[in-house]
Amino acid sequence: MKTAQRFRKPYRVKKQKSIFGNRFFWLGILILVFLSSIFYLLFFSEIFQVEKIIITGNKKVSTEDIEFLIEKKLEKKILFFKTKSLFLVNLNEIRDDILNNFPQLAEAEVKRGVPDALYVLVIERLGLAILCQNEQCFLLDSEGVIFEEISEITPKMLKIKKPTLKESLELGEKVIEKDYLEKILEVQKKINEEIKIEAKEFIIPTEERLDVKTTEDWEIYFNLKGDINWQLTKLSLVLKERVPPEKRGNLEYIDLRFERIYIFPETYWQ
């Protein structure tokens, strides 16, 4: 027993290495410094702060107005620090704000231009027709949206009325469905170019009916939910065979909404 105790190895306490001698500690520090540098470079350095807003495609909407709207959206806060970093710009939010605030614009595209620019391309609405209600008249685009109030009406422009609309209209509001507007444009083109009748006004009294007032002071009634091409064919035929120009002095209307064509003041024509 004494012999076993004599040869027992003495207990040694291992010295703990300092954390500063740990290579993983220094590797972590290097990674943290690298990430902090990248973070500062992207979000706080002057290199990537938005300095230029370049806007193209606008004619009716002023560049200054669009710039002012965008400027309000650029500044952000990270903790207590302000930044206008290019990489923090919400492109979709700016696009939506532009379209919501400027009804004259149909589309807007916003892109980053590294290192310090924003590029904004806008497409303005084109007036295809005029919509009048009460004493107000508006330009109407191909989507059926009113986007600009006007005081002078060009005689050659398509003029539309829709009595069922609410009294007060707002710019940017869709007042006519696109497919209805396309049918109206089709009617206008064919009666002017092929049938040789000049229309001065188009009225939509209901969702199914279109009334066309001619410069000869008689009207044509169409069914908007029916086959417009067939109705135009019937109109051309009845004008040639029953109501030539010399017989239109007392004509009040031609109704094409039904299987039979009604002419007033005259009996129907089948």
In a nutshell, what does this entry contain?
By secondary structure, the protein is α/β, with parallel strands linked by helices. 29% of the residues lie in helices and 26% in strands.
Description of the molecule:
The protein is α/β, with parallel strands linked by helices. It has 2 domains: 46-124, membrane protein fhac (Ubiquitin-like (UB roll), Roll); 129-264, Rossmann fold. 29% of the residues lie in helices and 26% in strands. It has 6 helices and 14 strands. It has helices at 2-6, 23-43, 63-74, 91-101, 178-193, 228-241; strands at residues 52-56, 76-78, 81-83, 105-113, 117-124, 129-133, 136-140, 146-150, 158-161, 199-203, 209-214, 219-223, 253-255, 262-264. Strands 8-7-6-9-10-11-12-13-14 form a 9-stranded mixed beta sheet, covered by helices on one side. Strands 1-5-4 form a 3-stranded mixed beta sheet, with helices on one face. The chain has a two-stranded antiparallel sheet with strand order 2-3. Strand 13 (253-255) and strand 14 form a beta hairpin. Helix 5 runs parallel beside helix 6 (228-241). The longest helix is centred in the first third of the chain and has 21 residues, at 23-43. It is elongated. The N and C termini lie far apart (133 Å).
Instruction: Give me the strand/helix succession.
Output: HHEHEEHEEEEEEHEEEHEE
Distance between the termini: 133 Å
Main beta sheet strand tally, sense and closure = 9 strands, mixed
How many domain modules?
Answer: 2
By secondary-structure content and strand pairing, the structural class works out as alpha/beta
Regions with little confidence, pLDDT below 50 for 5+ residues: none
Q: What's the pLDDT, averaged over the residues?
A: 89
- Placed side by side, the strands forming the largest sheet appear as 8-7-6-9-10-11-12-13-14
Question: How many strand units?
Answer: 14
CATH architecture of the largest domain: 3-Layer(aba) Sandwich
